[in-house]
Amino acid sequence: MGEGELRGSLMDFWGVSQGFFGGVSQDFGVSPEPGRAPPTIRSPRLISGSWSGCCPPAASPSPPPHPKYPTPSGWSPPAGPPPELPYFVRRSRLHNLPVYEGQRQGRRLTELRRIHGDIWAAPQALQRDLRAFLGSLGVPEVPAQVNE
């Protein structure tokens, strides 16, 4: 098929060449050529479940049970229910902790996001918990600041 034939067939497909858009009727609508039916327009149909692969899941699925723990990758389930604290740090959808490091005015900052619960009680409880953990590592003081 040559270039001219291809162009003609494409133009015929879209109703452009000498046909469908050729004349205008009295009511300013488009009238097809005599003996030629107007093209049918098909709307795309939504197949059930077709959007399921487009959006990421809202939450990660629960892990399947394993015969023994820790698994070969080193994962083991939590030991028990979380402790009763005035705050809760929600993990990301990929189970990562929302801890971010940055630098402002030459100082290294560590930012903890996605804190839920009583955010005004969280700095005192969080400082207490961080002092206990980081004190064993040799870090002297942990200042905290709430930023809504």
From TrEMBL:
It is found in: Mitochondrion. InterPro entries: Ribosomal_mL49 (IPR007740). One of its GO terms (molecular function) is structural constituent of ribosome. Coiled coil: none annotated. Residues 58-70 have a biased composition (Pro residues). Pfam families: Img2 (PF05046). It comes from the Eukaryota. One of its GO terms (biological process) is translation. Its main location: mitochondrion. Keywords: Mitochondrion, Ribonucleoprotein, Ribosomal protein. Residues 53-81 are annotated as: Disordered. One of its GO terms (cellular component) is mitochondrial large ribosomal subunit. Belongs to the mitochondrion-specific ribosomal protein mL49 family. This is Large ribosomal subunit protein mL49. It comes from Chloebia gouldiae (Gouldian finch).
